[in-house]
Please model this.
Amino acid sequence: MFLNCHSYHSLRYGTIPLDDLIRQAADCRVTAMALTDINTVTGIYDFIKGCEASGIKPLVGIEFRCRHRLRYIGLAQNAVGLAQMNRFLTEHNFEKKPLPQTAPFFSDVFIIYPLENAPDELGHNQYIGIRPDQLSKLVISQWRKRRADMVILQPVVFRTKREYNLHRILRAVDLNELLSKLGPDDCCSKSDVMIPEAQLTALYNDYPEIIHNTRHIIERCNFQYDFESPKNKKYYTKNKKGDIALLTTLAEEGLVWRYGRHNDQAKARVEKELKVINDLEFSGYFLITWDIIRYSNSRGFLHIGRGSGANSIIAYCLGITDICPLELDLYFERFLNENRKSPPDFDIDWSWKERDVILKYIFDRYGYENVAFCGTNVEFKYRSIFREVGKVFGLPKEELDQLAKNPMKFHQTNSIVKLVQEYGMMLEKYPNMRSMHSCGILISEEPLTNYTPLEMPPKGFPIVLFDMHTAEDIGFEKFDILSQRGIGHIDDTVKLIEKNRGLRINIRDTRLSKNEASANKYLAEGRTIGCFYIESPAMRGLLRRLKCDNYKTLVAASSIIRPGVAQSGMMKEYIFRHNNPSKFEYFHPVFEQQLGETYGIMVYQEDVIKIALHYGGLSAADGDILRRAMSGKGRSKAALEKVKDDFFKSCGTKGHPLALSQEIYRQIESFAGYSFCKAHSASYAVESYQSLYLKVHYPIEFMVAVINNQGGFYRTEIYIHEARMAGAAIHNPCVNKSGYETVLYGNDIYLGFMHLLNIDSKLSQFIALERNRNGDFLSLEDFINRVPMGIENIKTLIFIGAFRFTGKTKNQLLVLVSLLLNNYKPENRSLMLLQEPAKEFKLPVLERSIFEDAFDEIELLSFPISCTVFDLLQTRHRGDVLVKDLLLYHKRQVRMLAYLISTKQVPTKKGNMYFGTWIDHQGAYFDTAHFPDSLIKYPFQGGGCYLLLGTVEIDYHFPTITILKMAKMPFIPDPRYGDSDKRFTTQNQIKQDVSSTERQPYPQEHEINLPRHKMKS
Model:
């Protein structure tokens, strides 16, 4: 009898989570109800499953609202009806036009108008909904004579008085209004709650025709959904036979390309995979992915195929991935097996500059009706909750900032703040708005509007109104079309090398870069700044601790750096065993047999599955449940608990010691959501090697590419430092040399205008465009005539030295620009065939020091170019020890002077500690640890140079300094400001890279107590 129920997917309106709504309906003995969230079907598929499990008949529909006002409610009689509503709503979403006052004709949809919005004439399958509190109106003849067209309308929006208050807060947030200014029409009625079904029906006993109409709708609405069958596009050709024939041909051609004609092992693996792919009817999935890659290659784009797809030799032979599964013993069953009902997804990366071209091809090739991005629910998060809720209570910005930035224990304790906290915490995990999944694309066999309305966000590609989990539940597997700057680094470096040196590097041929001797040397020394995935301080430290000098060790390192491996203690144990292979015993013979390559340590998702199967004796199906939990895709806690029970039961049957089984399962649990599959790690390692190879052999080109792709882990300044250390000459932007991006001439790097903090990007791009079109600028006057730029922007270019080719000093140019632009008329700015000679001005000679230039650069770039930061210090002291000597100072105190690169805050049981990364005055990097007690007395004070006192600790070849004291060193007074108070403010613009992690503190070694000796069965 409930034809109009809302869950919290009625964004900023409904207050009831879907499971709670179904549970409440069961408690009220509801036999049938409809989910009609506002302008969406986000929750209907979970709703159908939940209702069927609770013995409730599910009806699905949409409440159509326009500008926050209810127009009508649509209930689907069947799949055709849902598709009709979806297409109708999609059209209005795309065209941004308001919904009509009356519903269009739907052949398979029941339409219910609220009494206050009922049209004079009703169409086919259209009714008027009357609420219990409106029954008194039936005495009026206007409505009495229309009782035959009426149904019961009891909306459900909230459960309790507290939730009604939450509903009002959500409405105020949505309307950006104060709570006190909400009108009666802005919120639902206070009676919009669920009551026992018998009680609701009894209210209408005097109107049997209304009850009859309601039951008629319930009986006729029989929307059913097949959750089992795949919904992805089935065939690339016309049928299954054509697909497997084409896939076989492509695989055989690729087999020769990758392995030659006489590799029996590879040939057998190809035949085995083709059989499974054909049996499961996944040929089309592989071929569509191959088609996308084929188009990418035709455009000369570089891509990286990664994830579990790299377990497939077919993917390798088709060029989708560059990982040889035979080399790393990757088993295909991890990617695809006969028990799997839905295809896995390929993860494919492109440069961030090229991804939109690939997306356009996919949408054009497979049709905008059949292709869309997955949606995602953006939830209310801690900071946004307190800002949003505090705002509707009328708190000023200053208080909102305090609430958002500080933990609740530090909030004020007045009554308003308590209300903000109370209702704010209720909103945690509630969906706030819909958005686009960052990379997941669905390619459907049928039009996507058969399943959902579509929305068109500003990006210009449609999205479905459900997330990736729902997509998988209802039979879709997404194609992950990703972008990353690391590929841009590689791709642009190759292009720069060809332009700058005339050399063509085939970086796609991984035999060139993988395990290359020079690259391995850099890898073992942690000299990897700028390289994809391996440049962070933590990763560089790990590489040095492992003396990582080969591909397979790098593959392992790429996974053990992940939080799950570190949390379980297995990262530390792996480092110990790698460095001390004779000082441990395997937990159990199974670990030596299955995990010998990683010293008996579970490093990859596959390792978890191997141990579950071979040690625990679990079934393959249970192993797959564990795999999904490890990758963060498992949604059923109950299923995982059953696997856990089965694991211990089976271990007991096998006679394993309980203590060992408990320790092994602890390690398994700690992986959840944070471990890589081996193929994914291998894919990352290949890309890391490609970056590293280019950095080692073509460091200047590589760093320019990194800079132009807007860096990686660090700020631009650090990559400029790397380029300088590699022998490049760094030049400030110049109007006759620079582009919007940084450019390279031989070993001379001219910074791009994009790095100037005060210059508009369109103007920056216009400068290079105009120069390329009409030749170099001849003078400041010539520039002013040709570039439509105001005096302040020109002064910025003068201060950065962009007109130094004129031979005039900055001071002379500043005087000149003022003289030229005082009476300048912009309409006269045009390039004439015979330019009138500029009037010559006699300019005073005002000398400037290199330090003035450096402070100009700090102001405009945030770092100096004309000299180093060390040259700007008041002190001439450079510390007692240099980085190159640290290995000689184990357990000894050292004093160093260093420039701060980055800080990372991490939690410990005693409070937050920090790790710092620095360079000494010779440009070498080192790392520090700052414990909470030290930070209280000697905190970080922003970017700049510090004098450090600490104790050197050498951990497996890698030195760090535990800081006891530190002090920030002052710069010389800024000579541009004379005796002004501003003399010491410019240095505050020096930056540092700051990061933090919100994880739980890692357990200490004694708390984990990983066994290093065999435990007997």
